[in-house]
Amino acid sequence: MRVTPQIKSEIKKLLLKKLNESKNKAVVYTAVKLTQDEIKSLEKAIPELEHKQIEQIVDNSIISGFKVVIGTTVYDFTVNSKLSSLKRLNI
Q1: Would residue 13 count as lying in a domain?
Q2: Is residue 31 part of a domain?
Q3: Is 66 exposed, middle or buried (0-12, 13-18, 19+ CB in 10 A)?
Q4: Does the residue 49 lie in any domain?
Q5: Residue 90 has pLDDT above 80, yes or no
Q6: Residue 44 falls inside a structural domain
Q7: At residue 91, does pLDDT exceed 70?
Q8: DSSP-assigned states of every residue in the chain
Q9: Domain carrying residue 41
Q10: Mean pLDDT of 10-20
Q11: Per-residue confidence (pLDDT) for residue 66, from 0 to 100
Q12: CA geometry: angle at 39 spanning 34 and 42, to 5°?
């Protein structure tokens, strides 16, 4: 299948739109639902969260802690990631 310049242009527009949407949005993954006060504390702790639309996802695989995804940046403060790091070090 040949990709025409018009199709390439449309794909580029869609990808840029998606990227811009992700810049204004943050996703917070936690083991339990956070309260508004806890979310405000997170915003203070991670300045990049300010003025972002925050989507909260309860992830049952998280033992404790939280993970924040803003665009392509991931802040992982979960116990799972710490255990995984120790496992890689063979400790």
Answers
A1: no
A2: yes
A3: buried
A4: yes
A5: no
A6: yes
A7: no
A8: -PPPHHHHHHHHHHHHHHHHHHHTEEEEEESSPPPHHHHHHHHHHSGGGTTSEEEEEE-TT--SEEEEEETTEEEEEEHHHHHHHHHHTT-
A9: 25-88
A10: 83
A11: 94
A12: 120
The total of structural domains in the chain comes to 1
Q: What is the pLDDT of residues 30-78, one digit of tens each?
A: 999 999 999 999 989 988 888 888 999 999 999 999 999 988 889 999 9
CA 17-21-26 angle, 5° bins: 155
Question: Which one, of 89, 88, 69, 66, lies nearest residue 79 by Cα?
Answer: 66
Q: What is the mean pLDDT of the chain?
A: 87
Tell the burial category of 83 from Cβ atoms under 10 Å away from its Cβ (0-12, 13-18, 19+).
exposed
Length of the chain: 91
Tokens of 8: 């390439």
Contact 74, 42 (CB under 8 A): no
